[in-house]
């Protein structure tokens, strides 16, 4: 029997989100219905609301979620009812050129649930990032569910997006290793996860750069050994100064603006790696001297979803959390209800929270 549950939608461009009744079909072949426990509020949800992603309104928002599998459709072997899972954006095909190269985060044939969740009048909803988890139950492709050890859902659910993106940018894409110097530009949820990842990977110098002293203070708790307020001090000079005049082995850019891309580029050591995880808008441009690109060598990389393998990385990070070695609780600024998402967007904008997490 299809269930009718409460969920949060964005009905039209820029309009405040609404809590409405949503009809969730029984899982079909390859699908699963998940009872959502928690879902973090991410910038991407706000981008959907503002029309910055596409125009397929109405959107069912939310995508940083953990919960329990409630029911599975025909042929599902990945998960079973009762499993505690973290959701990821899309199930990968396992067979395309990217999957065959062991880089499934670039998979060409990703899929989500085939059936649609709807409003009670039958209007089809577009789930944010193929998930839609500001809702009591959601329908996903079974391959979007990664079984993990049981832990506080509010904390580990954040691995579904921002925290994984940041951690993976440093560790998977950047390949930070023991003894490295690392600079992280932008210390929101993504940047702090990169800092925490760099610390776990054994970096000895971790320079946090932000324009807010409060964010820099927080960054120290995640493992920053030095902080630079780039509204006051030239961050490139400062990073070079803290790394023997050289620049950092790995620079992670977690803002997504032209000036911070440029800073990241100049702050790397010879043969250093620049990892871009901050998402720019389509109209932004940077101009870089070719001799600088050539002369310093190294690599300029972008990081997609932290270049993560959910089945490898989610359980590993949950285990580190359970052992007290990765403080996911520190990313949870507040726990809120389904009706508080507009207020959470405002706090996100004001920069007063790392993550607001909806509890269902
Ligand atoms: N220089 C340095 N830091 C800056 C600058 C700047 N010019 N502008 C903003 N910041 C800081 C903010 O003070 C904040 O601490 O960058 C941080 C951004 O954090 P959040 O807004 O919390 O964003 P977050 O969720 O961490 O995502 C960062 O990564 O995945 C992408 O889409 C995401 O582009 C976004 C970025
Ligand atoms: Zn997100
Ligand atoms: Zn594939």
TrEMBL record:
UniProt key word Metal-binding: yes
Cofactor(s), names only, from the UniProt record: Zn(2+)
Cited Pfam families: ADH_N, ADH_zinc_N
Ranges of residues in domain Enoyl reductase (ER): 14-358
Source organism superkingdom: Bacteria
CDD domains the record matches: Zn_ADH_class_III
Annotated PROSITE patterns: ADH_ZINC
Keywords tagged on the record: Metal-binding, Oxidoreductase, Zinc
Gene3D superfamilies from the UniProt entry: Medium-chain alcohol dehydrogenases, catalytic domain, NAD(P)-binding Rossmann-like Domain
Keyword Transport: no
Family (UniProt): Belongs to the zinc-containing alcohol dehydrogenase family.
NCBIfam families hit by this protein: mycoS_dep_FDH (TIGR03451)
The protein's name in its UniProt record: S-(Hydroxymethyl)mycothiol dehydrogenase
């Amino acid at each position: 029997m299809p269930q009718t549950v409460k969920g949060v939608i964005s009905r039209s461009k820029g309009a405040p989100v609404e809590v409405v009744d949503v009809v969730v079909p029984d899982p079909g072949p390859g699908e699963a219905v998940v009872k959502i426990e928690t879902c973090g509020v991410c910038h991407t949800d706000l981008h959907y609301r503002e029309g910055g992603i596409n125009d397929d309104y109405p959107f069912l928002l939310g995508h940083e979620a953990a919960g329990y599998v409630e029911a599975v459709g025909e042929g599902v072997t990945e998960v079973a009812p009762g499993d505690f899972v973290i959701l990821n954006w899309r199930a990968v095909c396992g067979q395309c050129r990217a999957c065959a190269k062991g880089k499934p985060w670039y998979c060409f044939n990703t899929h989500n649930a085939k059936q649609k969740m709807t409003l009670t009048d039958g209007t089809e909803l577009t789930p944010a990032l193929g998930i839609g988890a500001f809702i009591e139950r959601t329908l996903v492709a079974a391959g979007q569910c990664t079984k993990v050890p049981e832990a506080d859902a509010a904390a580990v659910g954040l691995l579904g997006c921002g925290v994984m993106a940041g951690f993976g940018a440093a560790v998977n894409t950047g390949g930070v290793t023991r003894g490295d110097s690392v600079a992280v530009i932008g210390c929101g949820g993504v940047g702090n996860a990169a800092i925490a990842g760099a610390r776990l990977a054994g970096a000895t110098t971790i320079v946090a750069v932000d324009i807010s002293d409060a964010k820099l203070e927080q960054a120290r708790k995640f493992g920053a050994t030095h902080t630079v307020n780039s509204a006051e001090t030239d961050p490139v000079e400062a990073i070079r100064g803290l790394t023997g005049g050289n620049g950092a082995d790995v620079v992670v850019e977690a803002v997504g603006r032209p000036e911070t891309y440029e800073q990241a580029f100049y702050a790397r050591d010879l043969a250093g790696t620049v990892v871009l995880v901050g998402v720019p808008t389509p109209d932004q441009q940077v101009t870089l001297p070719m001799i600088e690109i050539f002369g310093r060598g190294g690599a300029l990389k972008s990081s997609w979803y932290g270049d993560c393998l959910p089945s490898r990385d989610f359980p590993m990070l949950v285990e580190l959390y359970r052992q007290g070695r990765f403080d996911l609780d520190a990313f949870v600024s507040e726990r809120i209800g389904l009706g508080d998402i507009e207020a959470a967007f405002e706090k996100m904008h004001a920069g007063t929270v790392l993550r607001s997490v909806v509890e269902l």
